[in-house]
């Protein structure tokens, strides 16, 4: 049994609206940049040679998500970036990208760097999954 809100004019509760929908702008004419999502894991010799940990080559065992976004003819100062736990929102004068991330991330723990010679923005975010404290202890 779900309790309805006090205000009968509301169409839906705030819990029903997905995170990041406030950024969705279908009327924006800017094009979407080319991007890649890569996964990175921390391995040591005990993982590679001895196979002593539970890690394998799947994305379920990766601790970091690396997002590479091609931004041709863009200066670093033109980039507006907002990262939340499930959504990445990037805006430049010519391009925009609203990306719903495949895994939940820790939006406070990450690194961003702009490679001007490659015209690429590289964002590294720590993946935040349940039970990672057990799996990667």
From TrEMBL:
<feature type="compositionally biased region" description="Acidic residues">
    <location>
        <begin position="13"/>
        <end position="26"/>
    </location>
</feature>
<feature type="region of interest" description="Disordered">
    <location>
        <begin position="1"/>
        <end position="30"/>
    </location>
</feature>
<dbReference type="InterPro" id="IPR026697">
    <property type="entry name" value="DNAAF6"/>
</dbReference>
<dbReference type="GO" id="GO:0045505">
    <property type="term" value="F:dynein intermediate chain binding"/>
</dbReference>
<dbReference type="GO" id="GO:0005737">
    <property type="term" value="C:cytoplasm"/>
</dbReference>
<comment type="similarity">
    <text>Belongs to the PIH1 family.</text>
</comment>
<protein>
    <submittedName>
        <fullName>PIHD3 protein</fullName>
    </submittedName>
</protein>
<dbReference type="InterPro" id="IPR041442">
    <property type="entry name" value="PIH1D1/2/3_CS-like"/>
</dbReference>
<dbReference type="GO" id="GO:0030317">
    <property type="term" value="P:flagellated sperm motility"/>
</dbReference>
<dbReference type="Pfam" id="PF18201">
    <property type="entry name" value="PIH1_CS"/>
</dbReference>
<feature type="domain" description="PIH1D1/2/3 CS-like">
    <location>
        <begin position="32"/>
        <end position="127"/>
    </location>
</feature>
<dbReference type="GO" id="GO:0070286">
    <property type="term" value="P:axonemal dynein complex assembly"/>
</dbReference>
<dbReference type="GO" id="GO:0051087">
    <property type="term" value="F:protein-folding chaperone binding"/>
</dbReference>
<feature type="compositionally biased region" description="Basic and acidic residues">
    <location>
        <begin position="1"/>
        <end position="12"/>
    </location>
</feature>
